[in-house]
Amino acid sequence: MIFGDSLADVGNNNILKTWARADYSPYGIDLKPFGPTGRFCNGRTTVDFIAELLGFDHYIPPSELTNGTDILQGLNFASAAAGIREETAQHLGDQSTMKEQIDNFKNKILEMNVLLGGPQNTKDHFGKCLFQVGFGSNDYLNNYFVPSVYNTSKLFTPEQYADDLIKQFTTLLLEIYDLGARKFALAGVSQVGCSPNSLALGSQDGTCVKTINDANEMFNTRLKTLVDTLNKDHPDAKFTYINSYGLFQELKDRASTLGTFSNFLTNYPIDNNESIGGPAFYALEL
């Protein structure tokens, strides 16, 4: 089961009234034979790769387009521009927030109860599933660092904002736990200050915006602490932290050996297979 934002969305936003959509070219240009599916990527997303590594013979489908027994094979609830906070990215139009994604999950549970023969069987089924959860990027990119629209940067210092995000995230995450989930992969926030949008609006020399990345690291530090706490308090479950920030740094450090141009962050498109910085916000498959 997948909950998250544009880094994991595989088409749920296609049916929403929003600017955060990717069901048109050049998205999906390297995803043969599908083409544009709603993935904010030229090819496969991280969750697609994970599905392959876990041995699935298919990618986990968007929950909004999946029904019947197919819902037992995994569901992707992710919605581009989604955040932990309810107001995040509302200026872009509709999207499913973290809370709304959990509500959508609860609706699917009602169907699963019928298919599996009752709530306890459904919970037992969830105990065998992997739940990937990744939020926070939009709470910075499309909230805290958009002071012309949102007042969060006036209400909170970066440290206070990270604390508040983690508090809300914890409450929502434990809802998923209470529904039967026991295996969690929790993705940290990547280097949002290196996104093409952040560079275009906040960088004078093409380097990553330090104030944004510093705020992202504050969130990640608290998320890592939360993972330790959850593992201690819930011994019947396993919570794993995914270091998205560090993985992105490794890609930057290894840009030349990966065959990408040194200025890949600000020049899109260069070539289909020569960039990890996508249009405005999103990553590309190398």
TrEMBL record:
A biological process term (GO) from this entry: lipid catabolic process
Which keywords accompany this UniProt record?
Answer: Hydrolase, Lipid degradation, Lipid metabolism, Secreted, Signal
UniProt GO molecular function: hydrolase activity, acting on ester bonds
Which is a Gene Ontology cellular component entry for this protein? Answer: extracellular region
Q: Sorted alphabetically, which Pfam families does this protein's record hold? A: Lipase_GDSL
Q: Any idea where this protein resides?
A: Secreted
**UniProt keyword Signal present:** yes
What family does the entry list?
Belongs to the 'GDSL' lipolytic enzyme family.
Q: Which PANTHER family match?
A: GDSL-LIKE LIPASE/ACYLHYDROLASE-RELATED (PTHR45650), OS01G0748500 PROTEIN (PTHR45650:SF3)
Q: What is this protein called?
A: GDSL-lipase 1
Per the UniProt record, the source organism is: Heracleum sosnowskyi
